[in-house]
Amino acid sequence: MEALAEDDVPLMRVMALHALGYCERLFYLEEVEEIRVADDRVYAGRTLHETQVDQDGDWSSVQLESQRWGLKGKVDYVRYRDGKLVAFEHKKGRSRGDEAWESDRLQLIAYCVLLEEHLGKPISEGRIRYHANNKTVILSIGEAELERLTGAVARGRALAQSLQRPPVCANENLCVRCSLTPVCLPEEERFLSHGENENADAVRLFPAEDERRTIHITEPGTRLGRSGHEIVVTPKDSDPVRLPGRDVGTLVLHGNVQMSTQLLHYAIANDIGVHWLSGGGRYVGSVAPPGGVQRRLRQYRALTETTLRTRLARSIAQCKVENQVRLLLRVARNRNCRTEVEPAVTAMRGEIRAIAVCDNPDTLRGHEGQAGRRYFGALPRLLDPECKAMVFCGRNRRPPQDGFNAALSFGYGLLYRDIVAAINVVGLDAALGCFHQPRTAAWPLALDLMELFRAVVWDLSLIASVNRKQWRDEHFVRGGNQVWLSDRGRKLAIDLYENRKQEEWRHPMLGYSMSYARAMELEVRLLEKEWSGKPGLFGKMRLR
Length: 544
Hints:
Elements: E1 12-13, H1 14-22, H2 24-32, H3 40-56, E2 59-66, E3 71-81, E4 84-91, H4 102-119, E5 125-130, E6 135-140, H5 143-160, H6 172-176, H7 181-184, H8 186-198, E7 213-217, E8 223-227, E9 230-234, E10 241-244, E11 248-254, E12 258-259, H9 261-269, E13 273-277, E14 283-286, H10 293-303, H11 306-335, H12 338-356, H13 361-378, H14 403-426, H15 444-450, H16 454-467, E15 476-479, E16 482-485, H17 487-502, E17 504-506, E18 513-515, H18 516-532
Parallel strand pairs: 1-3, 4-5, 7-11, 8-12, 11-13
Antiparallel strand pairs: 2-3, 3-4, 5-6, 8-9, 9-10, 13-14, 15-16, 17-18
């Protein structure tokens, strides 16, 4: 048989063939875009291999490669059975009756041909042990199996050459047990295809909560390091605090905080976001994971289309202004001051109508700006005048000149950090947006997506905290016309912001609920679907 792979073509993982047999979209996400998520089933499988496989085999965990087949992988173990070598695979789940699942068959065939080439001896049989129902399936390796493998390798190579993801799997049952469902969002696409006709909510496979914690380090002089799988936080004048690495999703370093290279490597390897902010809350930078080539190329191609850019910009502007109007009406109702904000609300509704029919990007930004001026002009009427530390007379920044603006800008810095983190997780390029112009060092796409969450996540929380009289003079540092948050002020703002992120929000179209923290990632993924899947769900976020 002729060689299947050229010398300069990277070897394909056998596990990628297993994914291909399960779902072509899963193969593309894992092998081409290199998106891999370890859920509880993946960890259970790893534990099985560590505890069972390594104890049983004559030869265990044999690493094999073949340039001829263009494959590489690690067979669980190899044993002599009835005078011949047999490759074994362990699976945590159940068999398909008396047979193996197609993806498992494909994986075992690949291991057998790799083992045969490696040893120079014929391998005519492989076995798969399914532990859930204690079943061992025997698979004979003949010409039909070799042809199946050849076809699968060729199909995988063809998919790897494409920039477009394969369509969502037709078999909905496969999606329920797939670890990459939060990335693929198959049910969201199916909802757009038939959800409205069936008058039903989408099946929620996207996790409602991120179980990993966001850790803010605000005390100057604190050092962060690594000890095994623990993150060690050592304040300047206190004892070290140890945090299990698996429980941490994000590290946010404020001001003069040091971090070891060992911990940075550990964070990158374990998908722990690392972000740096100045002591005043200005975003400094972050560590972005490698990869995302295909995702970014699709993004570049899509956002060069003027029609798509304008449509997305219109959705962002509408979402922002409608949320601002809803915030004004909600707080005014609670404070019994509807008549005082009615002129601003009426004017902003006029801007919403203009935005809905606007096709010029500059004019669109003009309508959004006019609505913003009306919005901030009405905000003082919603604040308790007895909270003297937070008197607000209009939006100002760089530098903020009053306590309210200082807190507002600090919270926006936290929100910007979260949006950048979500963009990095999805793998898009934050430099290429559709609404904001690249006038500063801030990422345009991050500024675009912030507009969906400003009023919902931070403005409403800040206004509520003012009306609860939580802010005092000790929360601020004043110098001339400039105002900054003090250490206590930053901690209060972080608590307010993080608590708000954990509150739940119900998607108005999909019908399921999630935390605002998860909603940020969801919106980035729905944005990507505007050009990589079925469009129509991005920018629907509205304040209840």
